[in-house]
Amino acid sequence: MSTDQLPEIPSRDTGTILDDAYKTLIEGLTGIFASDRKEHVLALGHVLQRLRTGGFLRVLRRELQEYCKRGRIKPDYMDTEQHRECLQEMLDFLDGDGPDQVRFTLMKKIFLVTATETLSTRESVLPQQYMRICRGLSSGEVLVLTSTYARAKAGGALPTSGSARAWLTAIAEESGLKHHELVELHERTLIEKNMLTPRTLPDHSGIMAGPEFRLTHLGFAVCEFLSGYDAQRNG
Fold first, then answer.
1. How many CB atoms lie within 10 A of CB 97?
2. Better-scored residue on pLDDT, 47 or 121
3. pLDDT value of position 25
C-alpha cells in the first residue's frame, strides 16, 4: 500500500511526519536493492531492520488514527509541546535503536496513553521521562518488569521478606524466560535503573517483596501508566 492510501490524522504535522518517515524508509530500501550484489549482501541486516521499522510506523499511525476517530485524543493535543517531544522520542527510537516487537509495543503504549490525557496532563513532564526510561530497556528487562507488575497486581506469592531464588523462579515462570539465571541477568540492570529494589542480606540471597513484588515506586508507576493502554483497548 502506498503512503497516499494511509488514513488521515487530524493534524497535518503529525500525519506528514509519519508519512514522510515511512516514505524515506521505502526509498532507502529501493536504493539498496538497486545496488550491486556485494552491497546488497552487506545490507541484508539493514534491510530487515528497515522493513520491521516500516511495519512499526504503520502500526503506530493506524492506532493513532483509531484513537482520533474514537475521540480519545482531543483535537488540539497534537499541537502541544508534550506531543512533539514524545513523537520525537518515538521517531528517534525507531530510527536508531534497532527496535524489536517487545520494545516497540512498550513505547507505543506510553505514546498513545499520553495522547489521551487520561493518566497525565499535557503539562506533565512524566510521560516524556517514562518514554526515555522505556527506550533504554532491553526486551528482556521489559519482560521481567511487566511480569513483576503482573505478579504484584495478582497479589504476589511471596511474603514481605523472602528468598531471591523464589522471586527469580516466580518471574521466570510468569515471563516465559524459564531460567532463573536469565531473569537474574535482567534483574541486575533493572536494579541499576531504579526499577527494582535491591537484594537484602549480606550474601544478597534475600529480598523485600512487599505488595509491589519488588517494584520501586518508579517501576510501579511506569507499569501503571502502561496498563492504561490495555484498559482503554478493553474498555
1. 14
2. 121
3. 60
Looking at the DSSP bridge assignments, the partners of residue 161 are 208
Alpha carbons 11 and 193: distance in angstroms, whole number: 35
Between CA 199 and CA 208 the distance in angstroms is: 7
CA 129 – CA 110 distance, rounded (Å): 10
> pTM score, two decimals?
0.81
Closest CA to 107 of 80, 76, 81, 86: 86
DSSP symbol at 204: S
Q: Is 211 exposed, middle or buried (0-12, 13-18, 19+ CB in 10 A)?
A: exposed
Contact 186, 194 (CB under 8 A): no
* Identity of residue 13: D
What average pLDDT does the segment 83-98 reach? 90
pLDDT, residue 138, reads 96
Q: Does residue 51 surpass a pLDDT of 80? A: no
Complete domains list, the chain, with CATH: 3-136 (no CATH), 139-227 (1.10.10)
* Mean pLDDT to the nearest integer, 49-67: 87
Is the pLDDT score of 200 beyond 60? yes
In 3D space, the residue among 198, 203, 232, 205 whose CA is nearest the CA of residue 111 turns out to be: 232
Q: Beta partners for 162? A: 207
> Is the per-residue pLDDT at 2 higher than 50?
no
Where are any strands of DSSP class E within the chain? 161-163, 206-208
Q: For residues 138 and 99, what is the distance between their CA atoms, to the nearest angstrom? A: 9
